[in-house]
Amino acid sequence: MSTEPSKVVYWRLQRAAGKANHELARIIGSTSQAKRSHDVFVISRDEIERGIFSRLRSQFNLASPVEELRSMFGRVTFVLTDYDDSDENLFEIQPVRNYFTELNRHWPVWLAFSELDSDTLKVMIACIVRDLRSATRDGDASCDVHISRAELNRVFMNAVPLTSAFHQLTGASSKQRRQRMNAVARHLDLT
Q1: Long-range contacts made by residues 102-107, C-beta under 8 angstroms, separation at least 24?
Q2: pLDDT, the chain, mean
Q3: What is the spatial distance between Cα 22 and Cα 27, in angstroms, rounded to a whole number?
Q4: Residue 69 near residue 59 (C-beta atoms within 8 A)
Q5: Predicted local distance difference test score (pLDDT) of residue 1
Q6: Rg (CA), the chain
Q7: Is residue 143 within 8 Å of 12, Cβ to Cβ?
Q8: Contact call for residues 27 and 77 (beta carbons, < 8 A)
Q9: Where are the alpha helices (DSSP H) in the chain?
């Protein structure tokens, strides 16, 4: 029996993951207001189609108080509005793919903030990878996604240096930085 890792990563994702109505209902329904552990950052269809990143960058930049930034690590659910009525998965919509590819190219530290309790990060990563295959079943609330492990690893490893440096600038210890990136790698099934 081979111990070599599979060349393909398999995810079963919620088809509505990342879409505003689905994510907000999930977050609100999962816990009381007092116990809620997520912040929601809404990205509009207009921002996506026009490639506008300024609001996102201003919300999560080093000009913000360090404590505020550190408190958001691993807590943000990125939500896209005005795609709720689309039958397509977000990673099948070209403007969404373009947006997250550009975001990741210029500002990969968004990985530091993304929560790991849902399929949202995986959907956003699926927008970025080049080698992606999905199969959606009619009437099914989820879809199967197959991604080249090498491609997924490339996306992840490109984000590590800047994300780690960003964590360091906000005062996170090397142990905290390592724990966060290991948690992201596990979430993405890279380990």
Answers
A1: 102/51, 102/53, 103/53, 103/56, 104/128, 104/155, 104/158, 104/159, 106/53, 107/53, 107/56, 107/57
A2: 84
A3: 9
A4: no
A5: 43
A6: 16
A7: yes
A8: yes
A9: 20-30, 45-50, 54-59, 66-72, 94-106, 110-113, 120-128, 149-169, 174-187
Residue 34, sorted as left (phi over 0), alpha (psi -120 to 50) or beta, turns out to be alpha
Cβ neighbours of 168 (radius 10 Å): 13
Query: Tens digits of per-residue pLDDT, 135-161?
Result: 776 677 888 999 999 999 999 999 888
| pTM metric for this prediction | 0.85
Q: DSSP characters for 169-188?
A: HTT--HHHHHHHHHHHHHHT
Our CA angle for 152, 120, 58, nearest 5°, is 95
The two structure tokens encoding residue 23: 């994510």
Residue 30 has what pLDDT?
62
Q: What is the largest CA-CA distance in the chain?
A: 52
pLDDT digits (tens, 9 = 90+) for 33-76: 444 567 888 899 999 999 998 888 788 776 777 778 788 888 88
Write out 127-140 in H/E/C secondary structure: HHCCCEEEEECCCC
Looking at residue 185, its amino acid is A
Position 44 scores a pLDDT of 92
